[in-house]
Write a structure and sequence with these properties.
This protein is an all-alpha fold. It has nine helices and no strands.
Amino acid sequence: MSPVAKALDVLQEETGVQMGWLVPTITLLRTKLQHLQVTSKFCEPLIAALVSGLEKRFGEMLADPELIAAAILVPKFKTCWTSDENILKLGLDYIRSHLDCQAENHVSDGSHSSEEEDFFSSLKKTGPIETTQQLDAYLGCPGDTVELLKSFPAVCQLSLKLNTALPASAACGSVAGLIFRSRRACIGSKNFENQLLLQLNQAYW
């Protein structure tokens, strides 16, 4: 069950993993399990149960345009994680529509103030054609690092919106348990907070 273990390791990472990693990871895991199902001689019922469980738990997510778009906007994956054109179309349509909305909002928000400051400001505004060109250039760029997004501001902004992880208190809670033990049950809240901050920021000392 190596593919399952590796997929769990990927999705349980505390750093470097974004929402866009979910769909490619589950898609690849499902493909690997289906291949094992054909070649395995002994674990076929277990593999079938795992494939069925993945479909039951993640089936709707694998067809969610927002999650597909988040995956495409991770430079590591772009469109290479699936060969299903219908799935990719869902994500790309979502991206294009939201890039167009971003451009329109940017124009409407800044039109009045910018025209007062600069008479020629309307010539500099990002429109739907330019954002589409940014998306095409991003998809055609051979790089796969996060820094690549900096070259495409509109794509980068949407990627940040879709891939910014929600904060979790799991890591903080485990460290807090190490500090707030029975022998330290009477320390004040300010002292406890300072110790917690020091513990979590050891790398910056």
